[in-house]
Amino acid sequence: MEKIKELLQQSLNIDFIAATLSNPREKDGLKKVKVRPILKKGVLLFQCEEHQNNQVFHENCDAAQAVSVLCGYMEKFRQMQMETKTVKYTVLVSKKGKVTIQKKQQTSCVKEVDLSHNRSKRYILEEGTTVPFLQDLGVMTAEGKIVRTKFDKFRQINRFLEFIEDILPQLDRDKEVTILDFGCGKSYLTFAMYYYLHELKQIDVRIIGLDLKKEVIRHCNELSEKYGYKKLKFLEGNIADYTGVNEVDMVVTLHACDTATDFALAKAVGWNAKVILSVPCCQHELNRQIKNEILAPILKYGLIKERLAALVTDAMRAEYLEGQGYDAQILEFIDMEHTPKNILIRAVKSGNQKKNGEKLEACEQFLNIAPTLKKLLEEKEV
């Protein structure tokens, strides 16, 4: 960790902009740490924002303290992205503790850093900066103001882009990055993803959106052509039948209904996708199957059974992905007050297959369930 300590010592000064520590070594506990500079009573401090179990904790440190605190955090994370006014750094830590530091000189004008202690939430896509696709989708006015009734959608888009930001180190920027978005619908998030990766991060990316609604697909293709997004295409089709590519870098499936999510996840595994981002929807399958004499007194309440089945469905999906060599996390996508469909499964290819078959079979037998994703993955291995 000496290399990381030296980098922090030379970077934590008035030119420091921000840092994000992500990709935790352990599944439970710390999820992410963000760092930003603040000015408090004329003293430059560094605020560490710790994300843990859907809670956020803050700690303000001077430069020396921040170096020590962040070095301690890096014992628990595999990567850190850090930005100063002159350089962008990507720090990667292997499982054996080998540290790799990549750096890139800033090529454009850097915005002034907001050093205020109590600042309002800053979004990746900021209000006041006109974004054409947000205007055409009715989220933003021509003046760059967010439409009041669409502010929840605006927050959801930015929250999704934070997840994309976290997985950037997993994508190979030396080649075209291929992303498939199943069940793209009106494509708020698909356009946001392309805009962020292509326009803001200048990554060579090709995104394919797939949905069954012909009119929606037509409209999205018209918008893509209008913006000059040459590598953003929308196709009409079913997730289970799509065979347009042989290998992809990332698969996104947002609100694909019931087992459509399972078909998308199985496709992603078959394509050896490096990253999977899935927000499941309408988990009816296990709600119809789940049965257990011990749990019968609580399963008789329909609402409880529905919610339990949904949670079990997504937990099993994450475990099946771990058995395929992915590091899987279940995260809160957006506050429950805005939508009940607030769980995101994030899976990153690690190559380490978790030997969890016997325990999962015990769960399946206990609950009398036969999830579609398990069947699809078993068929793939035959």
Structural notes for this entry:
This protein has 382 residues and is α/β, with parallel strands linked by helices. Helix content is 35%, strand content 28%. It has twelve helices and 14 strands. A hairpin with a 2-residue loop joins strand 2 and strand 3. Helix 7 packs parallel to helix 12. About 1% of the residues have low confidence.
Number of strands: 14
By secondary-structure content and strand pairing, the structural class works out as alpha/beta
Beta-strand content: 25-35%
| Gross geometry | globular
In angstroms, what separates the terminal alpha carbons?
44 Å
DSSP helix count? 12
* Main beta-sheet annotation: 7 strands, antiparallel
Mean pLDDT: 88
Runs with pLDDT <50, length 5+? 335-339
Q: Strand arrangement, largest sheet? A: 4-3-2-1-5-6-7
**Residues in helix, %:** 25-40%
Care to give the gist of this entry?
With 382 residues, the chain is α/β, with parallel strands linked by helices.
Question: Topology of this protein?
Answer:
Elements: H1 2-11, E1 16-24, E2 30-40, E3 43-52, E4 55-61, H2 63-73, E5 77-84, E6 87-93, E7 99-105, H3 132-136, H4 151-167, E8 177-182, H5 188-200, E9 205-211, H6 214-227, E10 232-236, E11 250-257, H7 260-270, E12 275-281, H8 284-289, H9 296-299, H10 302-323, E13 326-332, E14 343-349, H11 357-367, H12 372-381
Parallel strand pairs: 8-9, 8-11, 9-10, 11-12
Antiparallel strand pairs: 1-2, 1-5, 2-3, 3-4, 5-6, 6-7, 12-14, 13-14
